[in-house]
Design brief:
This protein is mainly alpha-helical. The chain contains four helices and two strands; from the N terminus they run H-H-H-E-E-H. It has one domain. A hairpin with a 2-residue loop joins strand 1 and strand 2.
């Protein structure tokens, strides 16, 4: 097996979704990874790759499906948001920074 690059780590984090190469490169650039062909190191790169994955998934939320030529894939907003929440939890990130989090109020201010 070859070396796992930072780019391929991002691809793996996003499976089963298959965004374009350009979307992946943009997400890596957004999180300041310019050496995306270098070897992935889980100790130093995991959190940054997770943030890049979240950025890609957030863009996919606005789509209900994507068609390219003869292939297409549909997206479930709930499942995309669940994946974002899982990535946040796995990497110590605040979920509310990336997706809307509902809050419960007790209404005690009404009486």
């Amino acid at each position: 097996m070859g070396t796992l690059t930072k780019y391929n780590a991002l691809v793996g984090e996003l499976e089963p979704y298959t965004p374009s190469r350009l979307a992946l490169q943009k997400a890596l650039a957004d999180v300041k990874i310019s050496d995306w062909d270098n070897e992935y190191n889980a100790d130093t790169d995991q959190r940054t790759i997770a943030i890049a994955a979240i950025k890609v998934l957030k863009r996919m939320i606005v789509l209900t499906n994507d068609t390219l030529g003869k292939s297409s894939q549909g997206y479930s907003v709930e499942k995309l948001e669940r994946r974002i929440k899982d990535l946040c939890n796995e990497n110590g990130l605040d979920v509310s920074d990336f997706v809307e989090v509902s809050s419960i109020t007790d209404g005690s201010n009404l009486w």
